Each structure stands twice: as structure tokens, then as C-alpha cells.
Amino acid sequence: MAGGRIELRGVTKKFSEVAVDNIDLAVASGEFFSLLGPSGSGKTTTLRLIAGFEQPTSGQILIDGADVSDVPPHRRNVNTVFQSYALFPFLDVSGNVAFGLRHRKLAKADLRRRVNEALDLVQMRSYAKRRPAQLSGGQQQRVALARALVLSPTVLLLDEPLGALDAKLRRSLKVELKALQERVGITFLYVTHDQEEALTMSDRLAVMNAGRIVQIGTPRQVYEEPADTYVADFLGAANLMEVDVASAGTLRLGDCTLASQRCEATAAGPAHAVIRPERVHIEPHGSPGANRVPAMVERVVFQGATTQVMLRLATGVPLQALVQNDGAELDLAQGTPVHAYLPPDGLRVLAGSGRGVPAPAGEPLVAS
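Above: the chain sequence. Below: its structure as C-alpha cells.
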């Protein structure tokens, strides 16, 4: 389906405080775009502004080039799926999906066809005569999607629609939801605080904090090249370390000298370096070579596919490593001395992140 381009131009929304602070955003037609951030970051308010449930204090909201800032929700070709699916308990599945079409004065055959097509999209046609109370949470979510899609919107807004489901069901439905978006070809704007959801499904995502967009990019770009300590800490697990930049690509961590191939700091002095836990390699104590720092094993946590190893570097800095469980025995009991290898291509120094920049929201420097 053509259309579905979203543009926000200098959009601000003030309640008693500023909820959305002068943001600019462009979402391409047919894109799966996620707004990611903690509670209070402004992501849901942004979605409500696009839906028309709130009006901007200033700025413009455009859909397919038309300014809809003052257009009521029912006149925007946009539909919304919420975390609470709000299905009508007195209607069966077919009736719930057909509800939005009733006022369009369709012929009965056309209405039935469109409802069946929507139910086929979400694999729920065989449940057409069941009431919501007879469905599981995942099935109710599919019905809510079908009810939104049957109206043929150019934009579908999703406000944490998987939040009420258990972890296993969320994992399976993430894959289904992305596949569904690719089949219908419309723009999905997805709001979540779950980093894994955003990384799994999005073509691009925006990380929000305090009403502002901190960084926009593909999941890989934002994960591997965080703009600052906030993004590095919020999106996945990250090891954030205070270092001193001696020269371009050369760092000091206590008495250890480290090389970084991803040093964005342009001047010598204090900075923050980040390395993801999966890039940290644990080696036997005394292993020779550059970028190896003495450490002690503090805690080992089995997580199934991986084992989380909490280290304490000789400099006193905590460090987290993830070791793939490939069948090899790990001799990493608490108190074991090791060396932590921090590969130069995995160690990134953030620009403009001198000492004294706190980890986000008061979290420790090693965060998950």
C-alpha cells in the first residue's frame, strides 16, 4: 500500500511539564520504525500526537505531506493498537473485527470478505465465532491487529502491544509481527521500552530521553555506535569505563594502556569508553599481548545459551563478559584470576563524554 510517510517538524507538547521537546522525525512509507525509551521519555506522547489523541503545543505533524496537526483522530488514515486490546466482550472475533467497518455502509459480502482477509492475515479465521474471553492473550492481540488492519490504514501505531504477554509468547509474536508488517506493506510506528523488541523488529529506531530524540539509526548502528553513555547503557548491556585519552586511539585505564580503533574523542583527557559484554574475551591469567587487563572473577551466572561472567579489573572497574555455551567446560570459579582481552575494534570511545558524566538514571557503570 502506498503512502504512510510521517514527518514531525519541531513538535513540542507541554502539559504541566514538557513531555515532547522540539523533536524532528521522518519515517518512510512502509517502514517499521520504533520509538524506544524508559517511562517518561516521551515516546507514548509522541505516538498519541501522531494518532490525534493529543494536539501539539507547537510544531507540525504531517502524514503523506498533509499537515494533520489539527485533524481529529477519526479523519486521519491512522489506526492504533494498545497494550490493553479493548475487545468488546459481547461480540465474537468476527464482530470485533467488523466493528469499525459498520459505518462505512459496505455490502454484506464485501464486509465479510474484508473481515475474513484480515483474520487470515493474523491466522485467526478458525476462531471467528469465539468470544474474547475464550481466547489466549496472544490470540486477543492478533484480533486487535486484525481490527486495526481491516480499516486499511496507511499508518499503524502500536503502543507496547506485547507488554501484557509472557516472555515466551512475546518472543514468538515479535517474529510474527515483523513478518505481518512486511506482508501488508504499511508503515508501523512501534512504541516500546523493551530493547530486544526494538532490535528484533525495527528497520530503524529512535532512542528517546526526557522528551528528546537522542539517536536515530538502524538497530545495528545504534547498538554498535551509541551516540553517548545514555544510549550505550539503555540499549542492551554495556560496559562503560572512565578512561584517559592519551592520543588518537590510545587510552589509559589505570596503569594499563589500551588501543581503540573506534575513538571519537578528538582531544586528550578524560572520556568514557564502551565495550559490549559479548566482545570481552576471558583468557588465562598471564596471557601476553596488547589490550589485556588483569581481572578477577566475581560471579558466574548460567543463562542457557550464554554464561554471564562478572569480572573486577585490577583497576577496580567492574566488567561484564558473555561467554557462548558451546559445550566447553568453563573453569571460572569465583576468585579465579584471569586476563580480560578488550579488542581494539570493540572498544569505542565516546565523543564529548568526559569524566563526571553519570551513567543514565543513576545506574551502575556495568548495566544490563
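The chain is about 20% helix and 35% strand.
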